[in-house]
Specification:
Blueprint (H helix, E strand, L loop, with lengths): L2 H4 L3 H7 L4 E6 L2 E13 L27 E6 L3 E7 L8 E11 L1 H8 L12 H8 L16 E4 L9 E4 L13 E4 L21
Antiparallel strand pairs: 1-2, 1-6, 2-5, 2-8, 3-4, 4-5, 7-8
Helix pairs in contact: 3-4
Length: 203
């Protein structure tokens, strides 16, 4: 994986990230997860984006450079991981919504719970981070360098398997077709419309 692959809009990169692998090395061990579901978020033109109202200390990583990890806390409960894309200075990132554990399943299950079935280990952005071992300390990590968290190319994904749909759980711009996933894959999270969502128009 190189920075040129990520140096495009989130909407362009999000489907191409399907099949790519995120690996996290911790003192506990190593977990690798192949990405099966993503969501694209841009900046000032995207009402659902953290960067919609401009740069803040919280979202600064989202403004680049591409290839870094933007980690935030969702609802005060779960960590969520985003891969920064696009041009340095312009906010753009891809939320990793789900994946399939391909290395370190025993450790992922220890983190998620012994009774969790394999397809559910990294289903949903919070579960993805928990299984992988991503926390606030990884915010800003360069995924293209030899660091604790690394992004690599995975097995090629047939274009026919890549589907697009509305984003999950957001109240603004929820119906933008910026969610990408592998059709029929059991690790992909279920679609849920936010109860606060209203019809919108846009991308």
């Amino acid at each position: 994986m190189n920075v040129d692959f990520l140096a495009h809009s989130a909407e362009e990169v999000a489907p191409k990230l399907l099949g790519s692998v995120l690996t996290c090395n911790t003192p506990e061990g190593t977990v690798s997860i192949a990405i099966t579901e993503t969501e694209a978020y841009s900046g000032a033109a995207d009402p659902a984006s953290h960067a919609y109202r401009g740069r803040t200390p919280r979202n600064a990583v989202m403004f680049g450079p591409a290839g870094h990890l933007y980690v935030y806390r969702s609802h005060g409960l779960h960590w969520c991981a985003n891969i920064v894309t696009g041009t340095d200075g312009i906010a753009s990132a891809v939320l990793i919504r789900a994946g399939r554990v391909i290395e370190g399943e025993a450790l992922a299950r220890k983190r998620r719970g012994e009774g969790v079935e394999s397809p559910r280990l990294a289903r949903g952005p919070g579960n993805f981070c928990q299984a992988l071992g991503i926390t606030a300390e990884h915010n800003g990590t360069d995924l293209l360098a030899e660091t604790a968290v690394v992004l690599c190319e995975g097995e090629p994904v047939p274009a026919a398997l890549i589907k697009a749909g509305p984003r999950v759980g957001v109240s603004k711009a929820h119906d933008w077709q910026h969610r990408f996933y592998l059709a029929g894959d059991p690790t992909v999270s279920a679609y849920r419309l936010s109860p606060r969502a209203k019809p919108t128009t846009g991308a």
